[in-house]
Design brief:
By secondary structure, the chain is mainly alpha-helical. Helices cover 76% and strands 0% of the residues.
Length: 255
């Protein structure tokens, strides 16, 4: 990202005030949200992780209402409930894991993670800090997160076996860095300039549908009837929240 900004002659100092805000959002969304989720996945099952992470749009919904970012509507509430019901339908087995005392610490980490993500999403929209150069803001956010997480890695990891690194693992890391981090966060921040935090956060539910579909397509995993029902619930929920009759009226006029 630094090379791109330098090449486009967009790299510059953003000022202490903006720097402070970028550090806060980096801490909330990259260090706390992503970092805590990664740590929690070592303690709990993947189904429980997915189930608790699905609560994030619900926190965004109620947080947006509390801060006046949007008015309450039954349509938006119904959309969130439909999407969460779809996730609940897929990862129903994860509910039983909530009773396991061995998962208590991991569950705590996950709730801290979704609180960090929801807070970062809401305050990014509230403070209108995404209206400037998104790439430049993200550079500072990733810089802070990278420094903090490297420090944590050396503090809390006892074994640094770099000999296990291979071309395959490095390629996977680069792929996740570019598409899973830089591209994904750029799209996320850009979307916040166009729609409400709830509309942006609710799209995360689509990730579950896409990942399971790709597992069927690439890894030849089976798709159950339960998944199809859940996918329909999620897609309908996303449609309900983002439905805008004016869009269809405009298309009719143009045609």
């Amino acid at each position: 990202m630094f090379l791109i900004l330098t090449y486009r002659k967009e790299f510059k100092w953003i000022g202490w005030t903006n720097l402070k805000y970028q550090f806060i959002f980096s801490l909330l969304m990259l260090v706390i949200a992503n970092g805590m989720t990664t740590v929690a996945e070592e303690e709990v099952t993947s189904s429980l992780t997915s189930l608790i992470s699905a609560c994030s749009p619900i926190l965004v919904f109620f947080g947006s209402l509390a801060l006046g970012l949007q008015k309450f509507s039954w349509r938006a509430f119904a959309g969130v409930v439909l999407c969460f019901s779809g996730i609940l339908f897929i990862f129903w087995d994860g509910i039983n894991d909530l009773k396991n005392p061995d998962y208590a610490l991991g569950i705590l980490f996950l709730f801290i993670a979704i609180a960090g993500w929801a807070s970062g999403t809401i305050f990014t929209k509230k403070l209108n800090l995404h209206s400037g150069n998104i790439s430049l803001n993200l550079f500072y956010q990733f810089l802070f997160a990278g420094i903090i997480q490297i420090i944590f890695a050396f503090l809390f990891s006892d074994d640094y076996n770099f000999g296990n690194w291979s071309l395959k693992s490095i390629s996977a890391m680069l792929y996740l860095s570019i598409f899973g981090s830089v591209a994904a966060f750029f799209a996320f921040h850009y979307a916040l300039t166009k729609v409400s935090p709830v509309q942006v956060s609710i799209l995360a539910y689509i990730n579950t549908v896409i990942s399971i579909f790709l597992s069927w397509l690439i890894l030849d995993e089976k798709i159950s009837t339960k998944f199809i029902i859940a996918a329909v619930l999620i897609i309908v929920g996303v449609f309900v929240i983002n439905y805008n009759p004016a869009m269809f009226k405009k298309q009719k006029i143009e045609s």
